[in-house]
Amino acid sequence: MIHDQTIHQKRVAVYCGVCTQVIDFNAHALLSMENLIYIITVPLSTSIILANLVIILGISCNRQLHNTPNYFFLSLLVADLCTGVALPFIPLMGLNRELSFGSCLVVHIFPNFLFLAFLSNLVMVHYERYICIVNPLHYNTLWMHRNFSLALLIVWTPPLLFASLPAFGWNNWSGPDWNNCCESTQTLPPLSNCSANLTSCCSYKRVFPNAFIYLEVYGLVLPAILFIAGMTGRVLWITRGQMKDICRLHRSVERGNQASDQEQRLNLRYTRCVVAVSLTFLACWVPYLIYMHVSIAYLIIDTKGRSIPNIVLSCTGIGSMAVVPMVLGLANKQYTQPAFKLLRKFRDRWRAQGSEEAAI
Questions:
Q1: How many angstroms separate the CA atoms of 163 and 148, rounded?
Q2: Quick one: CA torsion of 23, 28, 31, 35, rounded to 10 degrees?
Q3: DSSP letters of 107-158?
Q4: Numbers of helices and strands, H then E, in the chain
Q5: DSSP state string for 53-81
Q6: Please, what is the angle between helix 2-61 and helix 68-86, to 10°?
Q7: pLDDT of 97-130, one tens digit each?
Q8: What is the CB neighbour count within 10 angstroms for residue 354?
Q9: Which of 243, 250, 244, 296 is nearest to 273 (CA)?
Q10: Strand, helix or coil at 188?
Q11: 182 close to 195: Cβ distance less than 8 angstroms
């Protein structure tokens, strides 16, 4: 009897040693993945935050920009700023970490809410500008201008409610056996002594069921992207017609009329800006669309981990998506003029100090 207990204790010690080695290996791999994510996302996140702050400062300092369309764009900038702050944490959602139930919900639900709020604000801004171009006569009578607070509730509240569904019970936390993150020890006999000191394994598959992921991707995200792409394509088509009309009017108007020439140049410049911004916008969404479909493929094949190419693709895809408002804002000189004036003052002051030191 004593001999059998001794053999059992030795087996338990061997199994626990193997499990500890596997846990150490998984912890090292997890740390390497986290470092890779931070290396890629921290520069992107810093650039997005600084650029949004510059544009927000430009809108706040210019009283001529204090109107409803710019308030919508300001809401988008705030959402993009929050997305930039959460950018390093969004790719981490694909990694398995040892967290409690509450902490796991927070690190998954909050970044997802910021992403959905960003996408909702982006749709609202594009829709408002789309109506301005397609139907300018009825632009000032839009319901968004008459009920601005209601529009803000629409772009912020539904994303929060949908992202919070896992916190209200729609999750896989009580589903399969997710007692620990030692997934490579499934071939070992279950030993309570080995996993007694482990916390729960936090994974996006525990927080978000497959039905929730499919609903978000194909019911919310992809239709929103297609809606934005459709409006952008419609604007490009209208821009093409405007360019033809401008060329036709330019040929019919006398070339000696200076006012008419300036008007034509402004219209051409506006048309070029619309085309450039639209093409840039479409280019920024391509990496995210690729990442989205690759992630769905990983979900279908039910992989246990994340590969390095998938992590790099997720970081660049989400980063390129968050760059869209930054491109739209920096393309408008009215938004960046206060920042350029401030930089010009610093430059002139620095040159003046340099000239004084040289004279001394």
A1: 23
A2: -160
A3: HHHHHHHHHHHHHHHHHHHHHHHHHHHH-GGGGGG-HHHH-HHHHHHHHHHH
A4: 13, 2
A5: HHHHHHHHH-GGG-SHHHHHHHHHHHHHH
A6: 150
A7: 788 888 888 989 999 999 999 999 999 998 988 8
A8: 10
A9: 243
A10: coil
A11: yes
pLDDT attached to residue 302:
63
User: Residues 34, 322, 118, CA angle at the centre, nearest 5°?
Assistant: 110
Euclidean distance between the first and the last CA atom of the chain, given in angstroms as a whole number: 96
Q: Residue 189, SS3? A: coil
Rounded to whole angstroms, the Cα distance separating 307 from 32 reads: 11
How many Cβ atoms sit within 10 Å of the Cβ of residue 96? 22
Paired tokens of 109? 């639900």
Q: Which of 126, 336, 96, 317 is nearest to 217 (CA)?
A: 317
Give the Cα separation of 38 and 22 in Å (integer).
24
Q: Which residue, 248, 250, 274, is CA-closest to 262?
A: 250
Query: Residue 303: its pLDDT value, please?
Result: 58
Please tell me the pTM assigned to this model: 0.77
C-alpha to C-alpha distance for 241 and 237, rounded to whole angstroms: 7
What integer pLDDT is reported at residue 3 of this predicted model? 46
Give me the sign of the Cα torsion angle 205, 209, 211, 214.
Answer: negative
Compute the radius of gyration of the chain from its Cα atoms.
27
Sign of CA dihedral 213, 172, 27, 102: positive
Q: How confident is the model at residue 75 (pLDDT cuts 50, 70, 90)?
A: very high
CB 24 within 8 A of CB 299: no
Q: Positive or negative, the Cα torsion across 156, 161, 166, 167?
A: positive
| 88/35 Cα distance (integer angstroms) | 10
CA distance 178 to 205: 10
Q: Averaging pLDDT over each range in 84-93, 187-196, 244-253, which range is the top one?
A: 84-93
* Separation between Cα atoms, residue 106 and residue 335, nearest integer Å: 34
